[in-house]
From TrEMBL:
The lineage of its organism: Bacteria, Thermotogati, Synergistota, Synergistia, Synergistales. GO terms for biological process: proton motive force-driven plasma membrane ATP synthesis. Keywords: ATP synthesis, Hydrogen ion transport, Hydrolase, Ion transport, Transport. Residues 355-454 form the ATP synthase A/B type C-terminal domain. The keyword Membrane does not apply. Residues 132-350 form the ATPase F1/V1/A1 complex alpha/beta subunit nucleotide-binding domain. Residues 9-75 form the ATPase F1/V1/A1 complex alpha/beta subunit N-terminal domain. This is V-type ATP synthase beta chain. The gene is atpB. Belongs to the ATPase alpha/beta chains family. HAMAP family: ATP_synth_B_arch. It comes from Fretibacterium fastidiosum.
């Protein structure tokens, strides 16, 4: 039976249009809009009120004549064709191939809104994921099934860091089936080219699925892009048994699109003009990460967002922090010093870090070493602030050692090359090397057994080299 045609568009506002006298139309149903010129556009039903339907047009409403345009409701929701052949492919924000390759032959067609995970069937995240970046692996470890966002700001190298994580991330337990689903929203053509070229050049594209929504694409498409990416990730994780890392950048552009649509719908605005349901909307995406009992695969999420005006209390980072398990915060001052990646270690946090480290996971000394490095860096920063106020003469010998430690820590531990992939063993060994700079009696967060095993051989080696010199 052919879908019924309507020519009853009564009102157009931004990307939205009202269709009157509709029958049997459902929420979230797809619509086809045919203009007088024969051009066809797609839309979906946002709201239903008795015999009226509010339709959101994906390609925008410019050029639509309310008298001549036909609307057909298709009786189905927005779906995504999925297959293992998605790996190595590049798609637009609607899930259509843009890499010049053949159309995808679907093994399944899935609703992009996904299925909510039953909390009872969730498995606890506990397996370490190595990103090759010391500030994450050593100090804020990420585990399989976690949601760990990166809070950035305009002008900081979050895109380069996202590409590095996509290239380097791996499960060190040796699980072969590892994939990355990368969704970029509202980015420029130059940024899109950077991601595609970087992945092709380094060979990371073979295990990656890219979804790219450009800044000049319709804002409406931005709402679908992360959901399409997560649908692909769910298929790869729970149907194909793969460990999937989903990188979403930039979530701020997604939230701006949500605000734009909310304003067009004339909804009562919440904080800073964002819709009151922003928390719920973000949760519907973030909560699609995790592990399921009885399933081999998992979804780990790294949402990246730029904080407007570097403000951590802005609604987007604020609400994200409530839903996710920690955050990695990038620092503008470290970036000015030329340090990459400019991770601000002190406010960064991974709430599940203790679950993925230790004996048989990373190394037995990881937790103690992590706590000691935090403490030493914090004390060094305090000592440097004290020196600015009172002068260096007011510092004790221990404080001077910690102040020097904090400088070297930033220059060797935080700073690393964009294509430098450090193993967790290299990161831990680097941490112990740095602790040789401070008096052993001040190391109160590390067990004596670990000092004897890891630190003393380094001190003896240092003493022998000093004697030779």
């Amino acid at each position: 039976m052919l879908p019924k045609e309507y020519r009853t568009i009564s009102n157009i506002s931004g990307p939205l249009m009202m269709v009157e006298s509709t029958r049997d139309v459902r929420y979230d149903e797809l619509a086809e809009i045919e203009l007088a010129s024969g051009e066809r556009r797609r839309g979906r039903v946002l709201e239903i009120e008795s015999d009226r339907a509010l339709v959101q047009v994906f390609e925008g409403t410019s050029g639509i004549d309310t008298n001549e345009t036909k609307v057909r409701f298709l009786g189905k929701v927005q779906t995504l064709p999925v297959s293992r052949d998605m790996l190595g492919r590049v798609f637009n924000g609607r899930g259509e191939p843009i890499d010049g390759g053949a159309p995808l032959i679907a093994e399944q067609t899935l609703d992009i809104n996904g299925m909510p995970m039953n909390p009872y069937s969730r498995d606890f995240p506990s397996e370490f994921i190595q990103t090759g970046i010391s500030t994450i692996d050593g100090l804020n470890p990420m585990v399989r099934g976690q949601k760990l966002p990166i809070f950035s700001a305009s002008g900081l190298p979050h895109n380069r860091m996202a590409a590095q994580i996509a290239r380097q991330a791996t499960v060190i337990s040796g699980h072969e089936d590892f994939a990355v689903v990368f969704a970029a929203m509202g980015i420029t053509f130059e940024e899109a080219s950077f991601f595609m070229e970087d992945f092709r050049k380094t060979g990371a594209l073979e295990r990656t699925v890219l979804y790219i929504n450009l800044a000049d694409d319709p804002a409406i498409e931005r709402i679908s892009t992360p959901r399409i990416a997560l649908t692909a990730a769910e298929y790869l994780a729970f149907e194909c048994g793969m460990h999937v890392v989903v990188i979403l950048t930039d979530l701020t552009n997604y939230c701006e699109a949500l605000r734009e649509i909310s304003a067009a719908r004339k909804e009562v605005p919440g904080r800073r003009g964002y819709p009151g349901y922003l928390y719920t909307d973000l949760a519907t995406m973030y909560e699609r990460a995790g592990r399921l009992k009885g399933k081999v695969g998992s979804i780990t999420q790294i949402p990246i967002l730029t904080m407007p005006e570097d403000d951590k209390t802005h609604p987007i980072p604020d609400l994200t922090g409530y839903i996710t398990e920690g955050q990695i915060i990038l620092s503008r001052s470290l970036h000015r010093q030329g340090i990459y990646p400019p991770v601000d270690v002190m406010p960064s946090l991974s709430r599940l870090k203790d679950k993925g480290i230790g004996k048989d996971k990373t190394r037995e000394d990881h937790a103690d070493l992590m706590n000691q490095l935090f403490a030493a860096y914090s004390r060094g920063k305090d000592a440097k602030e004290l020196a600015v106020i009172l002068g260096e003469g007011a510092l004790s010998d221990e404080d001077k050692a910690f102040a020097k430690f904090s400088d070297v820590f930033e220059d060797t531990y935080i700073r690393q090359g964009e294509y430098e992939n450090r193993t967790i063993q290299e990161t831990l060994d680097l941490g112990w090397n740095l602790l040789t700079m401070v008096p052993t009696k001040e190391l109160k967060r590390v067990r004596d057994a670990y000092i004897d095993k890891y630190l003393k051989p380094l001190l003896e080696k240092k003493a022998a080299q000093g004697a030779k010199a």
